[in-house]
Automatic annotation (TrEMBL):
Belongs to the ROK (NagC/XylR) family. InterPro entries: ATPase_NBD, ROK, ROK_cs, WH-like_DNA-bd_sf, WH_DNA-bd_sf. PANTHER family: BIFUNCTIONAL UDP-N-ACETYLGLUCOSAMINE 2-EPIMERASE_N-ACETYLMANNOSAMINE KINASE, ROK (REPRESSOR, ORF, KINASE) FAMILY. This is N-acetylglucosamine repressor. The gene is nagC. The lineage of its organism: Bacteria, Pseudomonadati, Planctomycetota, Planctomycetia, Pirellulales.
């Protein structure tokens, strides 16, 4: 009986393409022979996958002159000369548009910055102008656009649900709207998720399967990588720690409930408190400058923020047992001693065995890195969803027995 689905060969081809891409992401430029041995499939199977990836301009072929005399072997690397991606970040004060390559390298010199406009229509127009300018420069093919948004996003519906300081985004399908303006595939991600993907793909979490990423900005977000899998939850709301109850019957939050972590420990909460104390509107940058200059009121407010944040971090440590807790936020860059304060408080609150096994470290990637990593992750994932478990088993075989001989996927 023939029970083979007519779609199976196509799926197997996509799986092989995904494995080739992931191998090069992890091990760098490789020859077809190396891929065949490492992935455990035949040479013709690898050659077919490579050919398809060259056609779609995700890979480039280079001569390897390091192997001595004779005909040089051809190595395949992620595209950097002929292809590019565009990364867009939205912030309460400022937006940026950059070019990146498939290796996750952000071309800082390409960065266009502009103050965040007051209306959605102007925002789309600004993005269109800046991104089209970057797409035309250099003669490279643009493969996709990643957009990082500081907001709660419904990934299933591709809609912004709640933005703390840009309410005009609420209910908007900003990814689809930018796609319509640019004629490019566009993926939207929450900023904390973008940071996590970047740390995993190109930062200090390449070898860490379980980590958390605190993103302290206007609001508070949390990125989660568990067993090598990036958690979004059913609709994209995983990690919304900012709206966990911390102070019963506390201050009103932007989400409509009271006493959320955001209402006491976010940038907007600090701005609100300090504005009340000083009797005039105060932005976070001024609060940080005051703290750096030794102003005791500003220091007290930031330390109070850390005490509340530590409660949230201790919950995450106890529930998820992360190996590393990355911390992102200009507050910690401006006042590094606050990180020590936060870690000290978290250690005092979390379960000892979990917290003693957890390292705390500033995030190594920027939001711009995150937007580029997000679109790369999207391009890779659009072939076939997660194959990290399979590649982990290859790494174990590799270290224990040399390269895997087993052909698991071959057509
Ligand atoms: Zn809330």
């Amino acid at each position: 009986m023939n029970n083979v689905s007519p779609f199976q060969p196509k799926l197997l081809s996509k799986i092989n393409e995904r494995l080739v891409l992931k191998m090069i992401q992890e091990r760098g430029p490789s020859t077809r022979s190396e891929m065949s041995k490492y992935i455990g499939v035949t040479f013709p199977t690898v050659a077919k996958a490579v050919s398809s990836l060259l056609d779609s301009q995700l890979l480039e072929e280079i001569d390897d002159t390091s192997e001595g005399p004779g005909r040089p072997a051809k190595r395949l690397r992620l595209a950097s000369e002929n292809s590019q991606v565009i990364g867009i970040t939205l912030g309460g004060d400022e937006c940026t548009v950059v070019v990146g390559d498939l290796n996750g390298v952000v071309h800082e010199e390409s960065m266009v910055r502009f103050s965040t406009p007051a209306t959605y229509e102007t925002l789309l127009k600004e993005f269109e102008t800046s991104a089209k300018q970057l797409m035309l420069q250099g003669g490279k093919k643009t493969l996709g656009v990643g957009v990082s948004v500081p907001a709660v996003i419904d990934y299933r519906e591709q809609v912004v649900v709640l933005s703390a300081n840009m309410p005009f985004l609420n209910g908007k399908s900003i990814g689809r709207d930018i796609q319509a303006h640019l004629g490019q595939e566009c993926v939207i991600v929450r900023d904390s998720h973008a940071l996590s993907l970047s740390e995993r793909l190109h930062g200090n979490a390449k070898e860490i399967s379980n980590f958390a990423m605190l993103d302290l900005c206007a609001g508070i977000g949390l990125g989660l990588m568990v067993e090598g899998r990036f958690l979004t939850g059913d609709s994209g709301f995983a990690g919304e720690i900012g709206h966990n109850l911390i102070v019963p019957d506390g201050e009103m939050c932007v989400c409509g409930k009271r006493g959320c972590l955001e209402s006491v420990a976010s940038e907007w909460a600090i701005e609100k408190r300090m504005s009340g104390i000083l009797g005039r509107p105060v932005r976070i940058n001024e609060v940080l400058e005051m703290a750096q200059a030794g102003d005791q009121q500003a220091i007290n407010e930031l330390e109070r923020m850390c005490e509340y944040l530590a409660i949230g971090l201790a919950h995450v440590v106890n529930i998820l047992n992360p190996g590393t807790f990355f911390i992102y936020g200009r507050v910690f860059e401006a006042c590094p001693e606050l990180l020590n304060r936060l870690v000290e408080k978290t250690k005092a609150l979390a379960l000892e065995p979990s917290v003693s096994a957890c390292e705390f470290s500033l995030a190594s990637c920027s939001l711009q890195d995150g937007t580029v990593a997000s679109v790369i992750n999207y391009l890779t994932d659009s072939l076939v969803p997660n194959l990290d478990g399979y590649l982990s088993s290859l790494r174990q075989n590799d270290s224990q027995n040399g390269v895997s001989e087993e052909a698991l996927v071959s057509n």
